[in-house]
Amino acid sequence: MVKTKNEYINREISWLHFNARVLQESADKKVPLIDRLRFLGIFSNNLDEFFKVRYATVKRIVDAGKTGKSVLGGERAKDLLEEITKIVIAQQARSLEIFNEIEKELKEENIFIIDENEVNDSQAEFIRDYFFHKVNQELMTIILNDLTEFPLLKDTAAYLAVKIVMKNGSGERKHNRYALIEIPKGIDRFVVLPKEGDKNYIIILDDLIRFCLDSVFTMFEFESISAHMIKITRDAELDIDNDLSKSFIEKISSSVEHRKISDPVRFVYDKNIDKDTLQFLKEKMDIMGTDSVIPGGRYHNRRDYMGFPSLGRYDLMYDKIDPLPVKGLSMEGSLLEMIAHKDYMIYAPYHTFSYITKFLREAALDPKVRTILITVYRLANDSQIASSLINAVKNGKHVTVQIELQARFDEQANIEYANQLQAEGINLIFGVPGLKVHSKICMIEREEAEGIKRYGFISTGNFNESTAKIYTDYTLFTAHQGILKDMSKVFGFFETNYKINKYRHLIVSPHYTKSTFIKLIDREIANAKAGREAYIKIKMNSLTSYKMVDKLYEASRAGVKIQMVVRGICCLIPGVPGMSENIEAISIVDKFLEHPRLFIFGNNGDPKVYISSADWMTRNLDFRVEVGCPIYDPDIKQELLDTFEISWKDNLKARVFSEKQDNAYRQRTEGEPELRSQFELYHYYQKKLES
């Protein structure tokens, strides 16, 4: 094998390049203006989570005095931290430029985001009234000078660092007082002011508080007062103790609580803050050299822009689509009867997620249904899935829920759901020691004339009504008894995890996913060497497993044509002579979050097609319970081939992976029509209904 200096892209750096693609959406003038602002919020939210988890992990390696080269693709952890900080500072600067551009364009649309210095008299009256009735009582304000110990700052909460320059007393030296004001989370970040003619005015909560600072510090005689934003990000990795006297749910709860006092890994501050204020804070907070210290803009927690008010300006936002029905699968009548005769596939959000809740509602009421088994990773805040399961148990069904308590950043929500479901009499399983359960499966057992018959569904995404409106995911409904027999073995593994099952149809991690996909790649390699058609088409979120990357390189050298649509991290470098010249890879970032995992192998003219909950990441292959499913129905198989092809031909939102890592948009050839895959996929399903 030809070795190159850059055989892999570091996963952390690749992730930052993914987030740069999100930032590109906020700069794209073809994206509706308010949605551009919301993409800025997504970019910021992504970055917060990156520092909580990935940066924190690398920092732990440095703090342990190790290089980390074996797990970081050959890069030293200390060097990687420096590289990350450099990239993030540049991205933050770019995000500020984009925000300023968007703000100018908003003004052209008569939408004005004003600060405390731009308030007119009528607005001042409204603002002070709003402050005293809604904000003042919510403020947590701390005077810092006389404290022996600096207060514990909340992870990613936004704070105003206040500098109060006191008036000189007789013979006294002028001195400063410092304070912190926590920006309340329970109040909308964007305060809509009374409209003036055609003009809409918004003041950000931070500036509203700045406008009223004199009312907060009335007890001081000050010469001047100023406030600048700061925030910290804490290590969010869960450290689970080994206390045998605690239940698993108690251990997770304790670990989630510990996050509140975990080590800070990033400190972001307004770059215009006074030097003496910044120095005071860094000394008091004991900010170390290995922490990422990032100068930013006037406002932090830009993730709040995901909730920027619409102001009724729907012309400045993406049109909402009406989810389509699946041809032949009616919401009226029995879904189970329809699924008994044929498999069906829904592709959210193009299709309605309501089929999943309808399936569970029907199972909850059907007198013949005896058992319902389901895995839960992330649920909506007000989950119809959970209420359907509770409804089922009240109707005498035996309901078993495998709930993953370690679903990143949803731990507390899942703990609360676990307590609620358990109180209703649902049998809960809390996973497999050492493994997260990331599979998305559901099965029911129904008593019919010929005996117990199984029905179920397998998905690439979570059973979450909220995210199903913005995440693209496949869900297969099936009554294929072989597939469902395998699924029952997966649920059996949750209960008896020392027993390793064999599966005839499903591809299950951690025991078989990697080896099965390697065999499928080997078959394509053999076909290519024999002169037969050989290809692989992959759609996934992330590719970080070096073993799978190496296997794809091997396939490329053998002549297998490989096309990949990878939304996020891609450690593979396509198009390198002698290593990956037969591999092409793109990323699509657009209106919806691309989330499905789809794998297609040419198989000498008889394609093998699979959907899966697993990306090709080490954690998915070796440290999680994941389920992949073959597609046997010829109509659905063709549909998946079609939808991949539509994604692959995208020439408006596709960025090309290359050695340059420059997120270059795919270039259209002369005369080639524009194709935006997410819009084209909706049209594809509209046409299927009409045909």
From TrEMBL:
The keyword ATP-binding applies. Its EC number is 2.7.4.1. GO terms for molecular function: ATP binding; metal ion binding; polyphosphate kinase activity. The keyword Phosphoprotein applies. Residues 123-308 form the Polyphosphate kinase middle domain. The active site is at H438 (phosphohistidine intermediate). One of its GO terms (cellular component) is polyphosphate kinase complex. GO terms for biological process: polyphosphate biosynthetic process. Coiled coil: none annotated. Residues 8-113 form the Polyphosphate kinase N-terminal domain. Residues 335-499, 506-678 form the Polyphosphate kinase C-terminal domain. An intermediate of this reaction is the autophosphorylated ppk in which a phosphate is covalently linked to a histidine residue through a N-P bond. Keywords: ATP-binding, Kinase, Magnesium, Metal-binding, Nucleotide-binding, Phosphoprotein, Transferase. ATP binds at N46, Y471, R567, H595. It catalyses: [phosphate](n) + ATP = [phosphate](n+1) + ADP. SUPFAM superfamilies: Phospholipase D/nuclease, PHP14-like, PPK N-terminal domain-like. Its cofactor is Mg(2+). CDD domains: PLDc_EcPPK1_C1_like, PLDc_EcPPK1_C2_like. Mg(2+) binds at R378, R408. It comes from the Bacteria. PANTHER family: POLYPHOSPHATE KINASE (PTHR30218). NCBIfam families: poly_P_kin, PRK05443.1-1. Belongs to the polyphosphate kinase 1 (PPK1) family. Catalyzes the reversible transfer of the terminal phosphate of ATP to form a long-chain polyphosphate (polyP). This is Polyphosphate kinase. The gene is ppk.
